[in-house]
Amino acid sequence: MDAPSSGPPPARAARWPAITLSLMVIAFVTLVMAVRHGPGLWADAEQARLCRMLIPALFPQDDGIRVTGSEAGGGKSVHVAFRLERNDLRAHLLSCRFAGVGYSAAKRDLVAVLVDGVGLGEASFYFLKTGWLETQDAVAADPGAPADAEPWFDVSRGAAVALQHGINTLPRAGILALLALATALIYGLIGRINLAFGEFAAVGGVATTLAILVSVALGMPNPALNAGFALAVVVALTALAGAAVGGAILHPLSGGALMGHARAENSGQPIIVAGVGLMVAVQEGLRLAQGSGTIWLPPVDPAPILVASAEGFEVTAHLRLLVTATLDWAAVIGVLAFMRWSRFGRAWRASADDPLAASLIGIGDRRVLIGSSALATALAGLAGASVTLNYGGMPFSGGTMLGLTALIAAILGGIGSLKGAVAGATVIAIAQSIWSALQPIAQWELVSFAALTLFLILRPEGFFGIAGANDRKQ
User: Fold this and answer.
1) Is 434 found in the same domain as 331?
2) 324 near 174, Cβ under 8 Å?
3) pLDDT, tens digit, for every residue of 385-407?
4) In a domain, 433, yes or no
5) For residue 269, what is the domain's CATH number?
6) What are phi and psi of 53, to 5 degrees?
7) Pairing of strands 305-310, 153-154
8) Which ranges of 197-342 does DSSP label H, i.e. alpha helix?
């Protein structure tokens, strides 16, 4: 676990808060821009695609259709500019208006079409929508997104593939880091593992979906505002649940700081059994709330960002991926900084190192445990929210394997070490990314558990674990 110290050098102490503040400012500014401008800042990629698919039905495909750009119009409209390269070099503009925007299910419902500013007749619009847009021919004839975007830089093909896998690793690394940090917060304090963090991540994921649907029903059309509302609900809900778990389950079963001998004799089986029971209860509750299926949110991305290009390969990044990864890592680094320099963090380290001595100087073990449980469970809920915002939904049982993988990360980092948990999560995410680039992705959990077994044989204390820590805990 992270041992107390007199403090880092002044330059180093000032550096981490600055990094944390910078990441949070970047994430906050991005979110504020999205909330202020919303769908008017960019064209929804799905709506732009639906609008493009109409062009081959309105103009001869043999003339060579080249889409030159797409942008959001006022209200719920999307404008697509294009040219007919063979017989007509002048620019054309196709405007499509939809019944909804953002996360609304009506965002796919086309309600009006204008060609060069002239609206289609009612009969023409009906046959265009039902006789063309809803067929596979329209999908096959899609002229494609604008191809005039310039990459930030050019790289070799091997470097481009590696960069793409690195970008794709960012959200998973952040999600695993949040869950591993949650695991280390509880283990470092009571020397026991709470197995239910994966299920609380699923709570965060399902709650994010439901909160977004509620905000849409309340008339919030802005996807950034929907996501912000959902994150606030998830963090509050899971923090309250974590506080209840800490006070009603973890504290009584851990023996309390004033019962040093009881803790020494406690094998930890009651907490493990309680964790398994909590896993089953939360998972079954989610199944009853969401159903056995998964509620999927519609995509709200603009066109992907072209980061780099190589011969026959383009490196792209999605805005939601960058924003959620930034928020996750800002939360991880913020919690590390908070636990390093705050009064609560010092109380946590004191209780973790010597609970009896901490109680003698007025540090209440129950208060510290409840606060740590609330913080840890809120981190797990944020991880689940990131899953939903990145991938569109989360099944009721989707947190189990995430929780086990995060436990592996915490063990690799040295169980009880906060920095080690984050390092272990990063290593696992990178290793899984490398494996998925070279081998079938379905096998990466098997590889993770096999690597853990080998690592524990060679280095049982983990990356940053303290030798003998388990003896001190027992």
Assistant:
1) yes
2) yes
3) 999 998 888 888 888 888 888 88
4) yes
5) 1.10.3470
6) -65, -15
7) parallel
8) 197-217, 223-245, 251-254, 260-265, 269-290, 319-341
